[in-house]
Amino acid sequence: ARVAQLARVLDPELSVCPLEELDLSSNLLTEVGVSQVIGAIIKGGNTRLLKLNLSNNRIGLDGAYACALCCQYSHTLQELVLSSCGIGDEGAELIRQGLGNQDLSEASIQHLDLSWNSIHNSGAMVL
């Protein structure tokens, strides 16, 4: 319920305060909550969000997919922190797909933290 309220605040049609940084680390978010938050960011066409920290939440693959969509549709996001989110190799692959075919050095994301996610060689290779 509280995540849904936060998602409404992120909707620019309902909020007059565009966010540049959003830190939701260690908030017991699940893939459902992260999907709601990311959905609100994308729906609102947030053009000012620079930093998103979702570390220490159990977002799993569905949350990684939502974050991949955020990477794909947010052209201002420079920092994405997903440490200790339980995304594994498949989640790393989804994030890479969200970044598109760009060389990572040319993507808007300047800092991507996927530490402590049980990413092995196969996941690291796609990045």
Summarize the structure in words:
The protein has 127 residues and is an alpha/beta fold. Helix content is 42%, strand content 9%. Strands 1-2-3-4 form a 4-stranded parallel beta sheet, with no helix packed on it. The chain starts with a helix and ends with a helix.
Number of strands: 4
Q: Order of strands side by side in the largest beta sheet?
A: 1-2-3-4
* Mean pLDDT metric: 85
The string of secondary-structure elements, in order, is HEHEHEHEH
Radius of gyration: 14 Å
**Sheet/helix structural class:** alpha/beta
For the largest beta-sheet, the strand count, sense and barrel status come to:
4 strands, parallel
List segments where confidence is low: pLDDT < 50 over at least 5 consecutive residues: none
For the termini, the CA-CA separation is 35 Å
Count every helix, treating DSSP H or I runs of 4 or more residues as helices.
5
The helix content is 40-55%
Estimated share of beta-strand residues: 5-15%
Outline: globular
Topology:
Elements: H1 2-10, E1 21-23, H2 31-43, E2 51-53, H3 60-73, E3 79-81, H4 88-98, E4 111-113, H5 121-126
Parallel strand pairs: 1-2, 2-3, 3-4
Helix pairs in contact: 1-2, 2-3, 3-4
In short:
The chain is an alpha/beta fold. The protein has helices at residues 2-10, 31-43, 60-73, 88-98, 121-126; strands spanning 21-23, 51-53, 79-81, 111-113.
